[in-house]
Amino acid sequence: MPENEAWDVIIVGGGPAGSTTARYAAEGGLRVLVIDGRDPIGSPLQCGELVPANDEMRRLCPDVPDIDDLFRTPEHAISRLTDKMHIVPPNGKPLKFDFEGMILDRIAHDEALVELAISRGAEYLLGTRVERVEGDAVLLKDGRRLEASVIVGAAGHNDPIKIGHWEENVLNIPVKFVLMDGDFSNAVELHFGSVAPGGYAWAFPKQGGANVGLGIQRRLSKGRSLNDYADDFFARYGGEVTFRGAGSLPMSGTIKSFVKGNYLLVGDAAGMVLPSNGAGITIAMIGGRIAGQVIAEHVTIGTPLIEYERRWGRQMGKVMRNSKRSFRLGSLVFRLPDWMVNLSFNRLTRGIIWRAVTCRRMFWIL
User: Fold this and answer.
1) Closest among 154, 159, 208 to 179, alpha carbons compared
2) CB-CB contact of 260 with 152 (8 Å)
3) pLDDT at 364 over 50
4) Which residues contact 151 (CB under 8 A, 6 or more apart)?
5) Which of 34, 183, 268, 282 could form a disulfide with 156 if both were Cys (CB 3.0 to 4.6 A apart)?
6) Average pLDDT of the residues in 48-58
7) Rounded to an integer, what distance in angstroms lies between the CA atom of residue 8 and that of residue 136?
8) Does pTM top 0.85 for this prediction?
9) Euclidean distance between the first and final Cα of the chain, in Å?
10) Could you write out the three-class secondary structure of 264-288?
11) 18 forms bridges with which residues in the sheet?
12) How many beta carbons lie within 10 A of that of residue 74, not counting itself?
């Protein structure tokens, strides 16, 4: 790749947010380059791998258009389908809900998004890390300098564009998870209470096993480490661990602004994770499509980049506000002793809990 080659848009990070941005920007006729330090993209695994099915997404995010165009999950990237979600208090007696979901093979899923973006004309530079971004230039650690009209940060909470050009205080929840062999029920499980203070634990069934993990708020952990909580929770299932992973989720919701000059943030870098349930893959892709479309319009017809924030607000503002409210209330409830949390999970609160997890208004009169 020539050092002096110029692009319409350079995207730092090729995960779901970055590759989706690339796909739609390229569909708009732009010259698009994605830079990622990983090779291949998608490895190592960093999340719980659960996403709602497309029909479920239409219910969860009713203002997001063209769901089927956005989410084209190939069959080989789906490890298992589920139709139930169990929300489990400390006493182990779950509230059971219908929920159409897919537990992914996340590596295959991210590779499919890369292939889709490439099929639209985007190019990828893998195994290469970004040192910093200055003006219209992306400076690589190997000394190369690449220029673009628009530069997008899609590399998570440690994104170099975010670190260098944004000042945002966000709540990052550390997570640990494993892939575990064994027989698991068809239901996805979310566990709350002292098992994961300030966060939740999960068990998502996969073909021949499950993705099992948890995240906590350290300030509520009473001096115990994340490793302690994780080991205790993993021991409940007893299967053979085939992979161990860790990461961090931004749980404050979206940051105040996604746009600064010719820089944009998308995905985890922009806080596009629903705080009440930790959903990030599909939410990042919604943001990526909006970003890619607006960037294409900006370069070709002069649409202001701030239109990205406006469209996000119209499509996802209500869902994100509801999720933030639910997370704040949940953070208060889950500070209570387990016996009080058990009392709060009952037939009378069942509807409120489900509405909170699925980012709807918890109380119909509000």
Assistant:
1) 208
2) no
3) no
4) 9, 10, 11, 12, 133, 136, 138, 161, 262, 263, 264
5) 268
6) 93
7) 10
8) yes
9) 56
10) EECHHHHCCCCCCCCCCHHHHHHHH
11) none
12) 14
